[in-house]
Design goal:
The complex is a heterodimer of chains A (257) and B (480). Chain A has 257 residues and is of the alpha/beta class. Chain A has a domain of 68 residues. The chains are: A alpha/beta (257), B alpha/beta (480). Bound molecules: adenosine-5'-diphosphate and magnesium ion (MG).
């Protein structure tokens, strides 16, 4: 579909819940290995954009392409099987990290991580476990394999959540406010892990209000406002926004810190 | 001869007139709780009617299989072809003659009026107008009492009726004099007495067949005539009553009492064994099968109820509402006595399992649905993002979490089920309570026998609740 060489292409994304239009023509592109930061006031549609990339939400119109998988939501196939397959293929390209981690409480740390690779991708348990241990080491949780989520701190839980998303080897990692639900003293450990991922070349789209962190990792910044991209640019946008409402928003966020 | 006890599974194809020429297997319905006509002595079915039936079978060339059930279940069982003949002192009357085929009578007896000893104002049928009578609902004596203007309270057999009289809960019982004499002799009771005769008319009891089985009736009839002629009937009767009740004027009846003068303790000892068999062959397998099948039904219905497809949702809602909105007893009756009328005939045990499973299914479906709904949305989403299709997501992520939430309420359903199994004697399946009834009908020891059966139920439920604790711990281990 595209020859631009971008890994992610989003075009004309539209979504309403009932009468309220939440996304109105959102579009952006991102190259492989880059980090895209989504910013914007609460309710501006950031989560909906991320969920659309993973098709947890089905947009009313627009095109999402990640790598070779593309879905045109305005023209979904009539055939149910075909539609499912398109969506499944697109979904498999991204891994999701939730604000409230959503770990499986009845499975151990290791069980959470190998669930997708073994049950969905059909990897052998041995192979998947070896990879899971490697990932746990990477997120600084070696030795906690047999713990249950409820036995971990919030920061540790979120790091397991990241490992779970990485285990499926997605092209893109989507992170929706990964530190917002954490106590302040736990935020650092999670951000450190994400910064690490960025350095390793993972392609990421991340919603965060941590402006200083965003300055470090962002290759591209998108300001969302009422369902449209109000301003976009490189990390410099964060220090020198052009638009009035972007300036206002950043002032408020920085004051709150 | 096979006395069908425990699981009265009526599996063998019954006799149908004309089909089987030589030795048809006749399924004989009888109470087993109506001494001295039909009762159990040390676990063996015996009594005047039983002996007569066996003699008739020998003479006519039938094989017989006895099926025990409360009196009020006997005619429905005959109608639904679960039994072929009733041998239980069925009195010949006009209504019955219009619907069924009787043989020649093998008992001539008188109806008597029984009241508590201190009741003085009831000595004739005229006196029972407006009084409360305890009777088997479908018996001839119930009709007699009703015709005389009494209000009839339905009971399961004469022993229960007698107990209600003793307790002063009813005013009068109308019954066959022999059964009353036997009860008085067995229990030594001085609290109730025969106060009068029903009327001058002598009532006649005979074997009853379905209208379509004229051939079987004729063969039984011929056999009865022969047995009367050669003195066999008189001999059987003398053995039980010291008189010949098979003819109109056979002398005064004398009975020793079939209960046999045992002490309460001995009665309990004698009954504990059969009751345990009732637990092992009735209560426990019924519970296990019905619960497992019921859960499977419930899961399917719960998922259908939550489906986005209306054609699945509506029937599921209807099923749940139907099961929860109707009595279990009615469900049992519909399946056991109703379905045969449209050609679906299940033996007692499978019918009981089906009814109980459907019942569990209806209640557990709502529990399972509620449990699934209480699994956080984030769990569905997390499973979806790692690429799980619906079935896998349900099986691996949602249901294990729902199970933990569902265990306590489902345990309640299980305990209710254990206790509900005591209803199934109405569909000819023997379980604990039925064994207690049988023993009580001979001895009148209601309190100790019912307490013993309560003990059995309580032990089962206690064991199950220990199991529930263990399961909850196991499922809850991940929650700190
Ligand atoms: N499932 C939903 N049903 C109805 N409204 C929704 C739903 N999800 C989100 N919204 C609304 O859409 C808007 C954007 O939501 P969201 O994408 O979560 O914003 P953000 O993540 O930027 O705070 C909000 O006004 C929210 O209330
Ligand atoms: Mg959000």
């Amino acid at each position: 579909m595209s020859t631009t060489g971008h890994l992610i292409e989003v075009e004309g994304l539209r979504k309403s819940f009932g009468d309220t239009a939440v996304l109105e023509d959102v579009g952006f592109t991102a190259s492989s290995g880059t980090c895209t930061v989504l910013l914007g006031p609460s309710g501006s549609g950031k989560t909906t954009v991320l969920r659309s990339l993973n098709v947890l939400e089905t947009p009313d119109a627009g095109v999402v392409r990640i790598g070779e998988a593309a879905v045109d939501f305005g023209e979904l196939p009539r055939d149910k099987g075909l539609r499912r397959k398109e969506i499944r293929d697109l979904r498999a390209r991204s891994g999701m990290v939730f604000q409230s981690h959503n770990l499986f409480p009845h499975k151990t740390v290791l069980g959470n991580i190998v669930e997708g690779p073994v049950q969905v991708q059909g990897q052998s348990p041995e192979e998947a476990e070896a990879e899971a241990r490697r990932l746990l080491e990477q997120v600084g949780l070696a030795g906690r394999e047999t713990a249950y989520p409820a036995q971990l701190s919030g920061g540790q839980q979120q790091r397991v959540g990241i490992a779970r998303a990485l285990a499926l080897k997605p092209d893109v990692v989507l992170l929706d406010e990964p530190t917002s639900a954490l106590d302040p003293e736990l935020v650092g450990e999670v951000l450190a892990v994400i910064r690490d991922l960025s350095q390793q070349g993972w392609t990421m789209v991340i919603v965060t209000h941590e402006v200083r962190f965003a300055q470090d990792v962002a290759d591209q910044v998108l300001f969302l406002h009422s369902g449209v991209v109000a301003e976009r640019g490189g990390a410099e946008v964060l220090t020198d926004p052009q638009q009035e409402r972007t300036q206002q928003f950043l002032r408020r966020v920085l004051e709150a810190r | 001869m096979i006395v069908v006890l425990g699981l009265a599974v009526v599996g063998t194809p019954g006799a149908t007139a004309g089909d089987e020429q030589d030795r048809p297997v006749l399924r004989v319905g009888t109470e087993g709780t109506y001494p001295p006509f039909s009762y159990e002595d040390g676990g063996d079915l015996t009594g005047y009617d039983i002996d007569v039936m066996k003699a008739v079978a020998d003479e006519a060339g039938f094989d017989v299989e006895f099926v025990e059930a409360p009196f009020d279940a006997l005619f429905p069982a005959l109608d639904s072809k679960r039994i072929d003949v009733i041998a239980n002192q069925v009195t010949i009357n006009d209504e019955r003659e219009a619907r069924y085929l009787f043989t020649e009578p093998y008992t001539f007896s008188r109806g008597v009026i029984v009241t508590a000893t201190d009741t003085d104002d009831i000595t004739t049928l005229d006196d029972i107008e407006g009084k409360v009578a305890a009777q088997s609902e479908t018996s001839n004596w119930a009709q007699v009492a009703r015709d005389a203007g009494a209000e009839v309270q339905s009971v399961e057999g004469f022993a229960q009726a007698a107990e209600l009289l003793v307790q002063g809960r009813v005013d009068v019982v109308v019954n066959d004099n022999i059964a009353v004499l036997d009860y008085l002799a067995s229990t030594g009771s001085t609290e109730i007495e025969i106060k009068g005769q029903v009327d001058d008319e002598i009532s006649k009891q005979a074997l009853v067949f379905r209208q379509a089985d004229g051939d079987l009736r004729d063969r039984a009839d011929a056999a009865l005539k022969k047995l009367a002629a050669d003195g066999t009937l008189a001999e059987i009767s003398e053995g039980y009553f010291k008189a010949d009740v098979s003819v109109e004027d056979g002398g005064d009846v004398e009975v020793e009492g079939s209960g046999g003068g045992r002490s309460t303790w001995e009665v309990l000892q004698d009954t504990a064994g059969p009751m345990l068999v009732g637990v092992l062959k009735g209560t426990i397998p019924l519970t296990i099968i019905s619960f497992v099948a019921g859960l499977a039904i419930a899961l399917g219905v719960a998922l259908a109820r939550m489906s986005s497809v209306k054609a699945l949702r509506l029937p599921a809602r209807f099923y749940i509402s139907l099961i929860r909105g109707t009595p279990l007893l009615v469900q049992l009756f519909v399946i056991f006595y109703g379905l045969p009328q449209i050609g679906i005939k299940l033996p007692g045990f499978p019918a009981a399992c089906l009814a109980l499973s459907l019942n569990v299914g209806g209640y557990a479906a709502e529990i399972i649905r509620g449990s699934i709904l209480s699994v956080p949305r984030g769990q569905f989403e997390a499973a979806t993002t790692i690429g799980m299709p619906y079935r896998q997501l349900m099986r691996r992520i949602v249901l294990p979490q729902a199970a933990r939430i569902a265990v306590p309420p489902l345990s309640n359903t299980l305990l209710s089920l254990v206790k509900d199994t005591s209803l199934v004697s109405v569909v000819l399946v023997t379980e604990v309570l039925r064994e207690a009834d049988k023993a009580a009908s001979l001895t009148g020891e209601f309190l100790p026998l019912y307490c013993l059966s309560a003990l059995y139920f309580w032990v089962i439920c206690f064991a199950l609740s220990i199991g529930q604790d263990k399961l909850e711990k196991k499922l809850g281990r991940y929650a700190v």
